[in-house]
Amino acid sequence: MKTTEIIMIPVSDQQQAKDFYLKLGFEVLAEASMGNGETWLQMGLPGQLTTLSLAKFQGIIFETDDIKNEIDELKAKGIVAGQIDPTPWGQFAWLQDPDGNKLCLHQK
């Protein structure tokens, strides 16, 4: 894994959360319909690589340069990741830690 890319924070009111994080100094980096009635809202602090996504679900996205190799390495360590999901924004594969926290690998 190369870097922590996105931390997804579950929120009940996306607009209220957006206003709060704007007051903290965050900027909107992406805001677009996800096609399922929800909006992808990604925010970040100026100059920082790790961003926040304010959504209805929780998770952490880790960027990788080679998602297939990363999954193979995890499998060799006994960690199971889901199938690679190709999207217009890159390839994603989800996994969970022992407490059920959702983690995601992302290759751009």
TrEMBL record:
Pfam families given in the database record: Glyoxalase (PF00903)
Keyword Lyase applies: yes
Gene3D superfamilies listed in its UniProt record: 2,3-Dihydroxybiphenyl 1,2-Dioxygenase, domain 1
Organism: Dyadobacter fermentans
Source taxonomy: Bacteria, Pseudomonadati, Bacteroidota, Cytophagia, Cytophagales
Protein name from the UniProt record: Enzyme related to lactoylglutathione lyase
GO MF terms, alphabetically ordered: lyase activity
Top-level taxon of the source organism: Bacteria
SUPFAM superfamilies hit by this protein: Glyoxalase/Bleomycin resistance protein/Dihydroxybiphenyl dioxygenase
Domain VOC: 3-108
PROSITE patterns in the record: VOC
Keywords: Lyase
